[in-house]
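Here is my example:
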Amino acid sequence: MISSHTLARLVTLEALEQGGCGAPSILDISEGRGRGGSALETRIAAWHALSAASLAVRIHHGAHVDFYDDLRFCRAAAAVDTVLLSACESAHSVELSAMSGCAIWPMISTAAGVLAIESMAAAKGVARLVLCEQALSQALGLEAGSEGEQRSLDIWRARMVAVSCAYGLAAPVLLAPCVRHDRSIEQQLQLLGEMGFGGQIAE
């Protein structure tokens, strides 16, 4: 998992072929509090001054006590232009997140989330959907590593691609382990591309 205050990058096949990691970078502030307030804001500003890339931030879900603090932080930090909304389950949470002034990427990781995919895709401010496969598998009670798990997850992959296309969103991305034991990262990204996904966020 991307740990709190750690800069990571959205992995895309194009960026990999060009020898880079691609943008945007992702800062996770959804894992616990302690983000350092002004110290973290200074860190982001300094990082942004040294890079032409934009910065994305993963925040707490809409029911979390820190949700509104996260939104205020994202709105105040000029470097942040994309918000990844953890465990998103409703269009209302998406619309609240759009108050940050950033592009919103709802992260789908629960049964309620998959049932609300279309309404979230239609919500103001949404740019892309994120499928959190490992968390969703656990939420649905699937057997990890089984053929049945893969078939079930393929259904939700296809649904997210179809919904994204229907609502004019960018191709969805997958949140998953960077490399599976049975294929290289290049093969994994190639497969995702063939399925209509735009890339992967490595756990």
Summary: The first helix runs from residue 13 to 17. The first strand starts at residue 7 and ends at 11. The chain has one domain: 7-202.
